[in-house]
Amino acid sequence: MKKIVSIIVSIVILGFLILFLVLPKKTFSANENRYLSNFPTFNLNNILNGSYMTKIEKYVEDHFPLREEFLNIKTNVFKLVGMKKQNDVYFGKDGYLLQEFLQEENSDRIIRIVNKFAKANSNVNINFLLAPTSIYIYNDKMPYKIDISEKDTIDKYKNELEVNFIDVIDSLINNKDKGLYYKTDHHWTTYGAYIAYLKFCEVYNIVPNEYQFITVNENFYGTLYSKVIDKTLKPDTIEKIIDDYNYDVYYDEEEVSNTMYSDKYLNEKDKYSYFLDGNHALTTVVNNDINSNKELLIIKDSYANSFIPLITRHYKKIHVIDPRIYNKSINDYIAKNSISDVLFLYNVLTIDKDLGILSINS
Amino acid sequence: MVFSSLIFLFLFLPIFLIIYYLVPFKAKNFILLLFSLLFYSWGEPVYILLLIFSSIVDYINGRLINRYHDNKSKKKIFLITSIVINLSLLGIFKYSNFIVDNINLLGFNIHIPKIALPLGISFFTFQTMSYSIDVYLGNVKAEKNFLNFMTYVAMFPQLIAGPIVRYQDINVELKKRTINFNGFCEGLFKFLTGLFKKVLISNNVGYLFSLISSSSSISLLSAWLGIICFSLQIYFDFSGYSDMAIGLGKMLGFNYPQNFNYPYISKTITEFWRRWHMSLSTWFRDYVYIPLGGSRCSKIVNIRNILIVWLLTGFWHGASWNYIIWGLYFGIILIIEKMFLKKLLSKCPNFVQHIYAIILIIIGWLIFAFEDVNLLRFYTGKMFFNSMIIDNSFIFYFKNYFIFIILGIIFSTPIVNKIKINKITKIIVGIIYLLLFIISISLLVSDSYNPFLYFRF
């Protein structure tokens, strides 16, 4: 028996050695959203400080044959033995992947900065919409009970921000059976955004439009899938709403489009970028079919991308700034344009972790 | 380079083995040495000079001791030279920062640069020292061929984490050894066993321990779960590494000494230390304890000898106070056992003896686990004085890691050896080994998987 096992193991090892040597190397890993490492260049210094060897090891790991298949094996073996969490993602019931809510660390700083922004722009009407993540709304899908501080964090923002706070939690919970979050991605679905839209309309005194939803893609494996690589999971469906208004969409003041949807992303891994062409520093959407002269500025993360198409019909022009990428002064931008309303739209996890919002006053 | 890495398993090892098996016997030691130096310099490109230096020193001293084997005072000088140089290497590269830090606590203000610990220095200095002592005592003849000697010191299977192989264990095999398919299979099997111990058990329970010990709120049960995980981690890590080393040795035609013999089934601490890291405890027994007089002397001197050995054993594990305390902790228990406790225990039922030993071992690991005294105090508090007995985190930890902990406990005992070997069980074991091999690779691959969620936002 030892002989047979040894022969098979030796063949496997030699097989992978040959595969590794002959297979063409990929440069980009879509699931990891990063470039894979290159073979290091030879240099005496790199050898003496050991970085040359570390880079070779990294190279071997990055280009190991059948990498994703092995990841899938690991995930499913671990699931089988009762491990319900990997890379901060829980394997929930009904195919839900739920991203762990990490304890907030920066809310004091963020609140201070938003309040400062509000003081500097007291002539505009500012609202703040902080979306929960799926682990809070779909807590009943968790494999077991854990303590999450997400509600406390949202309440903290609600209580300490000196701007009007749009609380969408109750509406989301009341409609949770309608698929408000993707199962394999960390964003909310178009319908989830729609529930927030109804709440938004209530606050802004707008009569909400009754939209019709249509499916644009049924093969969406999102960011949470990428974190765990589990090929037994079913893909998500992406929907959009039907809106017969005509728009001009400007990305970073240059490209012009007449739609807020970028079909090209539906053929890629990163399908959520279908909405508003992913994240741009500055996006403006001009409505050609409305008499109103209302203009709204949205300061946001990617949660806003699927939300914005819902509200464009109510405004003459919507300005969208992603402060993670926008490097000019937002105060100047407000002063230069006839903006009467500002909406902050973030999700409670990203706002604390990527901290793009900290630069809104500079 | 570590054994449990993709680059070792799929590049270094197969390429080395193919060359090693193909070249004629005369060239085998040279190839082994060449790859060993590559292996070492992979992680320590500069410190390799230290390894070579230590080998040269002991090679020369060994030969000089041999030449003056009739001249007691002369050969003593060379022995002392060897010991002083080896201990100085250890002193400078392992202990100088610790010693200076402690002197500075007394009000001095000495500055020395931070020295990184060279890989495996504790092991190879002990190997070369044992060689000089053995030549001095006449246990073995000095090696004339430097290539053979350097191969002995640098041989990559045991270079970095033991077992501490003595020259007399393999001096015959250095010159003449059988290398055959059978040995390759036996060795590969042992290697795989070690790989599974490390990758499947140790890494996972180790991850849970780091999760628990770095958490700010720890319930009493979590704290105990954590330290049990650490106990399993250190055993499966260390014995797994030894198994891999012994297995690799077998594949090359060497028979290394056994290093672990199910230490957690011990009934006394005395027994534990006969089963744990055996190559180290016998090293200290033969080269420190017995030369000091061992137990063939007055009670007081014997107690002194035990305390010296255990102070040194503790200190050998790391340049930090907790290791010293850990060593002395065991020294004191061993003295008490020797004086009366062992006799008393032997009258107790078996399970009482097992519980006694395992609890003392676990408390030992508690001291071992935390170099920072404040963390140790914090964690000990959570284990013994904690009003929060259980919390949701404990249930989460337990449910997620249950299988690894259970497997760890089962394979800490020789229970599976009791399974009757017949055709069917052989086939089952074979299939399990192949499956575990694939799973181990998938775990190694997944360690390298780094999804960047927000790379492009």
List the helices and strands and how they pair.
The complex is a heterodimer of chains A (362) and B (457).
Chain A: H1 2-22, E1 28-29, E2 34-35, H2 44-48, H3 51-62, H4 67-80, E3 85-86, E4 89-91, E5 97-99, H5 107-120, E6 125-131, H6 134-137, H7 150-160, E7 164-166, H8 169-174, H9 190-204, E8 213-220, H10 223-228, E9 236-241, E10 247-251, E11 255-257, E12 282-287, E13 295-300, H11 308-311, E14 317-321, H12 330-336, E15 341-347, H13 350-353
Parallel strand pairs in A: 6-7, 6-15, 13-14, 13-15
Antiparallel strand pairs in A: 1-2, 3-4, 4-5, 8-9, 10-11, 10-12, 12-14
Chain B: H1 6-22, H2 25-43, H3 48-67, H4 72-105, H5 121-137, H6 146-154, H7 156-159, H8 167-175, H9 181-213, H10 220-252, H11 269-275, H12 278-289, H13 299-316, H14 321-346, H15 350-369, H16 373-384, H17 392-411, H18 423-447
Helix pairs in contact in B: 1-2, 2-6, 3-4, 3-5, 3-6, 4-5, 9-10, 9-17, 9-18, 10-15, 10-16, 10-17, 12-13, 13-14, 14-15
The oligomeric state is heterodimer
Q: Give the % helix of chain A.
A: 25-40%
> Which strand-content bin applies to the residues of chain B?
under 5%
Query: Tell me, what's the shape of chain B?
Result: globular
The average pLDDT value of chain B, as a whole number, equals: 90
H/E series of chain A: HEEHHHEEEHEHHEHHEHEEEEEHEHEH
Percentage of residues in DSSP E strands of chain A: 15-25%
Radius of gyration of chain B (CA) equals 23 Å
Number of helices of chain B: 18
Tally of distinct domains of chain B? 2
Low-confidence stretches of chain A: none
Number of strands of chain B: 0
